[in-house]
């Protein structure tokens, strides 16, 4: 049961300035964290104190009644949802902003008219359309941004939005904020580093002179050493929120994006402000004029719009394909200054580090010196010849029966809660008692019928043990995990181990315990390697052909937790993550049906009783990383350094 202090924090919507967003509205030009300190005296940076994970499953009706009052729900949520939410609220004892969201906005409601289960380009096409439609503001957050086929949709969307609004008075032009994470030595002293407009073009963004109709500001955010900004979401006009599994880069990953509307968008907005942390120049328009945020479409309208968008995206599906991209892209910064969308944009090389500053790590250093510029062009052309083709194999979206755009059945607002985690830079596994982790573990431990998890990596000790315990209780636990995903990174110290190693160990534990007890516990673990819609077997992630990056957890086909967090050590103990917990059996069933429809994991991906996948002839498919080893650990360390530097890595 929430303490009196937490109860007061969670019900502060009944008071004035009970959230950071409301308080900032009184002084929109202030530094956001300074406002947060005033609303919540304990600083967000110190609220990530290491505490042991606390989970309990003994609840009285009176306790659940109190929990219900701690959210602005449209009706009484299920007992399962309330029990999970109760444990989530308990984490606020460590700090009111442990959830990277004001407590009074955590428990809310909303509708989800559409989901996308596809590769990055389909999701980025959707983002582009939403950006173009913006009237007042766009807040876009991603972990990894690189010049790519995926990022060109954002590039062109910003230019189209700018062109549409160029004739508006300066104070009426849309404001756009972009935040991402590219490690910089400067972030040891200051986590948030603004990216200078002179470096935008090198990042694959439009040059400043191309964006005369909007106000763009770009932020690079990382909390050293381990506190990665892993969040991926977008908020449009304080009316629409998109929560996605994908970064903005070229990868062959299957991804999941959900579109949300309703009161829950306020929680996304509050989270976005806290993530930005610094002064906004200029502020978001809806802070200056809160009435703008009331321009919301009704629930019925958003479902009709989702159907229209689906038909448009299918009709224009050729836009998602790069054709024959010219990866040299040497003249982008100089040539396209006309304010026109690029007719045939192409992936460009990942920016190479030039020094220890944010701009140096995040983008190519540009110059107006013609001699130096000519030298740079020659070097870039040489790199382009040596560079392998971009990882943009889009054949998956053409697979027979593949349906990327899912319009959900029309529904009234359902209970939704934010279950995030704040970044924690200190190495180790101590910072575990956070809303995201508590939601996952409580749900698994309270499951009565089923647990379904799809994730790139599965190795955090707490979630592994929770699933094993559920299997011991007779709960059917389905795991779809990517074979070989990030193996070199997962073999590093304190990172949990490879997926192959974890699967083998789980199968071994359940088999041995089952033999001792006379029960077949192993049958309760339905472990599968991700198998793409157009494949008859799993493919090792190192081949960069068919990977899955979806982050999804469903308990008893009732409560669904989805968003940014992986089931690995990095997401459990360090990275900033954004997730929603949705209480709706109808939506749960629709997501499960759509996920299974768009992959062959259930039928062609199950591993054997020993955790190893074999085909009909007994041939094994194993990951390149396998069970680890000193040589692979050394390779992982080198790739970890490369990834922080922006050179690629895992």
Mean pLDDT, all residues: 86
Envelope shape: globular
Biggest sheet, in brief? 17 strands, mixed
Quote the distance from N terminus to C terminus: 42 Å
Name of the CATH class of the domain at 108-322 and 347-398: Alpha Beta
Provide the CATH topology of the domain at 108-322 and 347-398: Endonuclease, Chain A
Strand content: 5-15%
Write a brief caption for the model.
This protein has a domain at 108-322 and 347-398: Endonuclease, Chain A. It is 34% helix and 15% strand. It has 22 helices and 19 strands.
Description:
- With 650 residues, the chain is of the alpha+beta class.
- It has 22 helices and 19 strands.
- The strands form two sheets. The protein has a 17-stranded mixed sheet that branches. The chain has a two-stranded antiparallel sheet with strand order 18-19.
- Strand 18 and strand 19 form a beta hairpin.
- Helix 5 (79-90) runs antiparallel to helix 15.
- The protein is globular, with a radius of gyration of 24 Å.
- Mean pLDDT is 86; it is low at 324-339, 342-375, 384-392 and 643-650.
- This is PLD phosphodiesterase domain-containing protein.
Which descriptors would you attach to this protein?
34% helix; PLD-like_dom; PLipase_D/transphosphatidylase; PLD phosphodiesterase domain-containing protein; phosphatidyltransferase activity; alpha+beta; two-stranded antiparallel ribbon; disordered C terminus; Endonuclease, Chain A; 17-stranded mixed sheet
Produce the secondary structure layout.
Elements: H1 4-10, H2 20-25, H3 32-39, H4 61-69, H5 79-90, H6 103-106, E1 107-118, H7 120-133, E2 137-141, H8 149-165, E3 175-180, E4 192-194, E5 215-221, E6 233-236, E7 240-244, E8 253-261, H9 264-276, H10 285-288, H11 299-315, H12 332-335, H13 358-362, H14 370-386, E9 405-407, E10 414-418, H15 435-446, E11 450-455, H16 461-472, E12 476-481, H17 487-490, H18 499-517, E13 525-529, E14 547-548, E15 552-555, E16 559-563, H19 569-573, E17 579-583, H20 585-597, H21 601-604, E18 613-614, E19 620-621, H22 630-645
Parallel strand pairs: 2-3, 3-5, 8-14, 11-12, 12-13
Antiparallel strand pairs: 1-8, 1-9, 1-10, 2-6, 4-5, 6-7, 7-8, 10-17, 11-15, 15-16, 16-17, 18-19
Helix pairs in contact: 4-5, 5-15, 7-8, 15-16, 16-18
């Amino acid at each position: 049961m929430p303490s009196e202090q937490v109860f007061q924090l969670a019900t502060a919507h009944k008071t004035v300035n009970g959230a950071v967003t409301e308080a900032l509205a009184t002084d929109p030009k202030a530094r956001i964290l300074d406002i947060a300190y005033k609303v919540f005296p304990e600083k967000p940076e110190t609220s990530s104190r290491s505490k042991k994970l606390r989970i309990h499953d003994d609840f009285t009706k009176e306790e659940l009644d109190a929990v219900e009052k701690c959210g602005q729900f449209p009706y009484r949520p299920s007992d399962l949802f309330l029990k999970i939410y109760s444990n989530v609220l308990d984490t606020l004892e460590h700090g009111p902003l442990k959830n990277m969201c004001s407590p009074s906005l955590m428990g809310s409601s909303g509708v989800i008219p559409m989901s996308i289960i596809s590769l990055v380009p389909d999701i980025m096409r959707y983002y582009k359309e939403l950006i173009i439609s913006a009237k007042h503001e766009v807040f876009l957050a991603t972990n990894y941004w690189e010049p790519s086929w995926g990022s060109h949709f954002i590039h062109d969307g910003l230019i189209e939005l700018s062109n549409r609004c160029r004739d508006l008075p300066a104070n009426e032009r849309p404001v756009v904020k972009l935040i991402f994470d590219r490690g910089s030595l400067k972030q040891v002293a200051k986590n948030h580093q603004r990216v200078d407009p002179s470096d935008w073009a090198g990042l694959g963004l439009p040059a400043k002179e191309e964006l005369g109709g909007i106000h763009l500001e770009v932020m690079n955010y990382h909390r050293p050493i381990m506190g990665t900004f892993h969040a991926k979401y977008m908020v449009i006009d304080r009316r629409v929120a998109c929560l996605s599994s994908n970064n903005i880069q070229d990868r062959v990953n299957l991804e999941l994006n959900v579109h949300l509307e309703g009161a829950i968008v306020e929680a996304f907005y509050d989270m976005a402000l806290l993530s930005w942390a610094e002064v906004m120049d200029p502020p978001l328009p809806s802070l200056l004029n809160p009435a703008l945020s009331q321009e919301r479409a009704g629930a019925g309208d958003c479902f009709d719009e989702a159907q229209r968008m689906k038909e448009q995206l299918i009709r224009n599906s050729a836009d998602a394909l790069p054709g024959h991209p010219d990866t040299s892209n040497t003249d982008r910064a100089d040539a396209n200054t006309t304010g026109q969308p690029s007719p045939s944009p192409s992936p460009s090389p990942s920016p190479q580090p030039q020094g220890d500053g944010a701009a140096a790590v995040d983008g190519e250093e540009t110059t107006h010196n013609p001699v130096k510029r000519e030298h740079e062009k020659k070097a870039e052309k040489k790199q382009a010849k040596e560079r392998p083709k971009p990882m943009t194999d889009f054949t998956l979206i053409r697979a027979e029966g593949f349906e990327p755009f899912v319009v959900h059945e029309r529904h009234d607002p359902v209970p939704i809660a934010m279950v995030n985690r704040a970044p924690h830079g200190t190495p180790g596994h101590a910072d575990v008692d956070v809303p995201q982790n508590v939601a996952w573990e409580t749900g698994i431990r309270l499951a009565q019928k089923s647990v379904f998890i799809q994730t790139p990596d599965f190795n955090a000790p707490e979630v592994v043990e929770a699933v094993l315990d559920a299997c011991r209780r007779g709960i059917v636990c389905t795991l779809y995990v990517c074979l070989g995903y990030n193996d070199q990174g997962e073999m590093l110290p304190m990172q949990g181990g490879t997926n192959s190693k974890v699967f083998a160990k789980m199968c071994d534990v359940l088999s041995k315990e089952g033999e001792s007890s006379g029960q077949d516990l192993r049958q309760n673990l339905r472990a599968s390697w991700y198998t793409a819609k157009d494949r008859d077997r799993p493919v090792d992630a190192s081949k960069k052909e068919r990977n899955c990056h979806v982050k999804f957890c469903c308990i008893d086909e009732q409560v669904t937790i989805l968003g940014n967090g992986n089931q690995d050590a990095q997401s459990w103990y360090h990275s900033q993550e954004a997730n929603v917990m949705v209480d709706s059996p109808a939506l749960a069933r629709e997501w499960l049906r759509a996920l299974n429809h768009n992959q062959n994991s259930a039928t062609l991906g199950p591993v054997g009783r020993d955790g190893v996948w074999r085909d009909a002839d007994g041939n094994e498919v194993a990951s390149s990383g396998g069970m680890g080893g000193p040589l692979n650990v050394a390779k992982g360390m080198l790739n970890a350094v490369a990834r922080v530097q922006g050179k690629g890595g895992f």
